[in-house]
Design the sequence.
């Protein structure tokens, strides 16, 4: 049996190489020499090690494009391994994206941190939402203790100790598939890479000592080539769908400003590219390649798996505020310059409305300080409307307890909570009898570890109702009408406007928080008449179904999940979607 080891210092992502290139050209030259001499392995496939839950599918692709492009240009290397040991869960869309990018192997360690369930295999074929398959491998570094069975928990940064060599092999469940196991060696999060002492230990163990596996250094590329040969003719396990991490669930919500900036940044970069092409084709204005490339690198770098999830220190977020400010400055200038130029070109009369989406549709825009409705704006294009074509008024009824349009009737109780929601078109009451809809509740959250980015299932045992309604006000804004509810909760103020529209079917809950509480998590909960044992969640380039029950420990573990732009709960013939 042979334990293969390698240094984590070799798997820096591209952004770190670029930092070295900018700040220490002599060091960078030595790194390039080592790569050319086959003494330093340049691998990993992505620009940084990004969060894989929150970023868009387009961002995932750009992470790979920029990462592979950098290594090809700088070192003549084409990455074939997606090396993501420390990310807080992996989207079911990732196998398809990796496969189409020519990356056929995925490596992680983090899922071994699961709170309730141990993954049944460390070597398996991972199936994505479209059926694409990549080879997956879990790192299993842990120390072996005498007369103690192996545990679920394993790492990705060992020190080359004999106990780790033995423990890493012992932890592998799939010994029927291979007698070799990969053990990364070196300081990880703290930096420092592989030390001379660690190297000496591995080389000593390579000679072979009684009672211990042999160990030696090998490139990741070579290890996986050997592993794939070993798997030929054998039945390899399969895993279908997302790799959900049963831990660090607070990373879906911690440091909300960064998550907002990332989402707005993604939209802004993709819009900037479209605006650049549009104005270049119509007006021959040069495409803003440099500004867009700089903006893209800021966006992708800040998707790093500790920055975007909210698990970094305060100084990091002071820096991201500055970087996002720089990015939005560049993108806003592109948008203002090019859209105004196109609008002036096509018409100096009327209202020019642009649609950056990939589908034609109706929507609302702000015109002369009011929300007005427009219809049939072409996808990735624009339309010019005369003022008479705009929908500027509404026929919606509103008082402090009722909102009603030709589509919906919504009734509020004295606390501003929805007690009845009638869909007139289908004659369907959406609120469960005796229940509440869009009920804002605060829960005390006191995790016993990782205070800033952990959420334990027992948080739901201590709810605090948000019922201190200060005032309710009817709001009118052109094509829409709503009720604004203002609540006080300890030292915080919550404002929410519920809007109905004349020209679109959507109901908006526009919420503003002046939040000053600690160890609370705020929720909006709805008890509906829709009966379903699952819900559909949007992810990158598709959707997945997750259970709405807790029948098994795997179901219970998903008490906190993430989605991108929608969640849909449906029964046969009827459903309800929450849009973000």
Sequence:
């Amino acid at each position: 049996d042979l334990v293969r080891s390698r240094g984590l210092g070799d798997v820096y992502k591209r952004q770190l190489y670029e930092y070295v290139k900018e700040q220490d050209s002599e060091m960078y030259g030595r790194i390039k020499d080592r790569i050319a001499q086959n003494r330093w392995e340049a691998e990993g496939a992505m620009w940084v090690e990004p969060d894989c839950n929150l970023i868009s599918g387009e961002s995932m692709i750009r992470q790979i494009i920029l990462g592979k492009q950098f290594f090809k240009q700088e070192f003549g290397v084409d990455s074939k391994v997606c090396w993501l040991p420390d990310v807080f869960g992996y989207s079911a869309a990732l196998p398809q994206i990796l496969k189409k990018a020519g990356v056929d192997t995925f490596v992680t360690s983090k899922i071994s941190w699961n709170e309730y369930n141990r993954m049944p295999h460390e070597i398996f074929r991972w199936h994505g939402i479209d059926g694409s398959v990549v080879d997956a491998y879990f790192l299993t570094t842990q120390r072996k203790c005498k007369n103690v069975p192996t545990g679920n928990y394993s790492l990705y940064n060992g020190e080359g100790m004999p106990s780790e060599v033995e423990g890493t092999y012992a932890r592998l469940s799939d010994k029927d598939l291979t007698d070799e196991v990969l053990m990364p060696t070196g300081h990880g999060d703290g930096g420092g890479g592989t030390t001379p002492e660690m190297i000496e230990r591995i080389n000593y163990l390579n000679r072979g000592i009684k009672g211990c596996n042999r160990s030696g250094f090998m490139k990741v590329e070579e290890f996986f080539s050997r592993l794939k040969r070993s798997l030929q003719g054998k039945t390899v396990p399969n895993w279908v769908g997302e790799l959900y991490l049963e831990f660090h669930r607070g990373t879906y919500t911690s440091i909300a400003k960064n998550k907002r900036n990332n989402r707005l940044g993604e939209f802004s970069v993709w819009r900037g590219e479209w605006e650049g092409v549009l104005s270049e084709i119509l007006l021959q204005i040069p495409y803003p390649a440099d500004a867009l490339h700089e903006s893209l690198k800021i966006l992708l770098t800040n998707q790093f798996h500790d920055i975007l999830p909210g698990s970094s220190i305060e100084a990091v977020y002071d820096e991201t505020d500055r970087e996002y400010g720089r990015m939005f400055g560049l993108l806003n200038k592109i948008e203002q310059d090019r859209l105004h130029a196109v609008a002036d070109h096509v018409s100096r009369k009327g209202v020019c409305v642009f649609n950056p989406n990939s589908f034609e549709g109706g929507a609302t825009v702000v015109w002369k300080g009011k929300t007005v409705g427009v219809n049939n704006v072409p996808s990735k294009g624009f339309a010019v409307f005369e003022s008479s074509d705009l929908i500027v008024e509404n026929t919606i009824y509103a008082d402090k307890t009722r909102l009603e349009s030709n589509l919906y009737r919504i009734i509020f109780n004295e606390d501003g909570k929805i007690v009845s929601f009638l869909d007139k078109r289908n004659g369907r009451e959406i609120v469960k009898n005796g229940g509440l809809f869009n009920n804002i509740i605060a829960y005390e959250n006191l995790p016993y570890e990782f205070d800033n980015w952990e959420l334990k299932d027992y948080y739901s045992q201590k709810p605090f109702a948000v019922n201190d309604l200060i005032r309710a006000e009817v709001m009118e804004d052109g094509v829409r009408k709503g009720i604004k509810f203002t609540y006080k909760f300890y030292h915080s103020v919550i404002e929410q406007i519920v809007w109905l529209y004349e020209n679109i079917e959507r109901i908006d809950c526009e919420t503003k928080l002046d939040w000053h509480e600690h160890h609370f998590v705020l929720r909006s909960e709805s008890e509906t008449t829709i009966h379903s044992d699952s819900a559909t969640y949007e992810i990158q380039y598709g959707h997945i179904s997750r259970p709405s029950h807790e029948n098994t420990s795997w179901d219970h573990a998903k008490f906190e999940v993430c989605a991108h732009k929608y969640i849909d709960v449906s029964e046969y013939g009827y459903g309800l979607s929450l849009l973000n």
